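BUG: 3D viewer hangs when loading the predicted structure for this chain

Environment: internal workstation, default settings.
Expected: structure renders.
Actual: progress bar stalls at 90%.

Input used:
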Amino acid sequence: MKTHYRRNSFLPLAAALALLVNHATAATFTWDGSDTAYWNLAANWAGGVAPVSANTNDIIISGTANVSQMLPGAVSYTIKSLTYDATNDADTRFTMTSTLNAAQSARNLTFNSNSGNATLTVESGSTGNKTIDRIGTINPATIILTSSLDVIHNGSGTLTLGNAVNASVGGGGGINKSGTGTLSLPGANTYTGATTITTGTLQLNGSTHASSTVGIGTAGILSGSGTVNGNATLTGGGIINKSAGSIAGTLAVTGGNWNGAGTVTGAVTSSSGTFTIGNGANLTSTAGVSAIGGALVVNGTLTGNLSTNSSTTLSGTGTITGNTTISGIHSPGNSPGIQSVSGNLGYNTGSSVTLELMANALGVRGTDFDGINVGGILDFIGPTTVNLAFNFAGSSVDWTDAFWDISRIGTSGWLVYDVAGSTTNFSNLSVTAANWLDGSGGSFNTSNLGNTFSLYQDGNDIYLNYNVVPEPNVAALLGGLGTLVLLRRRR
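Structure tokens produced before the viewer hung:
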């Protein structure tokens, strides 16, 4: 019993010694490829020592010798970091099989750091594509993230982890992408940690796990045709530029750009900043878009329904295919322009419409003044105001121009709403009177006091009218003529 007690008393000390040994064996191994393509051969490493599998080891791939098809040999490596240095100027591939025989068993590569995150770095100046995958179509191999992986890619080529057939990224860690380069994930990935794109591009042609939230930072880009199976966030000037594919969860936006195609199955919520659907882009939103703050600019196509709240501004020259309900500001165009709603368009109580006119002429709709096309029902559900603007950048409006001496009544005014369906509650729409400034800062009341702008409904279309009040002497003359005519009739 005494001996047994003493043996157990040394177990904590033995564990501590083992930990010290593990730290003591931390080392950096630099590839020179002097012999063959095998990682497990000492002759391929500077100093003549091959790395072992340890979460304290840093691997550097240097130069171009035997890098086109590197192999682990009989070892499934665990490493803390992998760096392609600035002298690695070639297409470089690490194949997760013991040999180039595709039937051989997989040799997984594990990133596991004994302190902090593991790292995968492509240094600035390194050229060529970098790939970690495996050959053949059988015996799948996995890049395992026991720790989260910081991918710092500043090289000129594409860094690819996995392939579409038999290599992917798994484990409990996540991926943090930074640097100017492109990281490609073509496989059906199962890692469950978060995916963060701080800078550079993540090209997702495969898929992410449902537990991995994909966050596109203010200088990040998400591209590719794959599937985000979880939720996604878009921040600041970040860009989603997918060629196809989907986000199966929700998309939370605090500023950013949708410049490509694809579908968001869950709700899209824009809560702050400016969210822009770019020219030629198409965002298909199955659950609809809710703009609850900031600005939404639709210059491309939003396929789905849209609602905005009182603190949101909707603008742009694109098309919203679904039904749209506005509770905030609707400012069609981009100084000026035409925005289209293929479905129904409704304005709730307190909403407003900003219309810009930039010429001393009726001009061209969409070029010289704003317009809104509606394919379904136009409904002013509650009181809605129209705010006119004439003094924005590029405006040539001059209140002293002779154009403003003549009324523009009825359909001879500016066509604002071109409605294919029907219009209801037109009486809830009114123009807010103001002392408008022209393109040079001149005051409307100085030159046109008493003149007014109003709205006119023709069928289901709505026009902006301009009403000139006659000068007092003209009014008196007209009144005198009327009296003369009356006297003549009496005679």
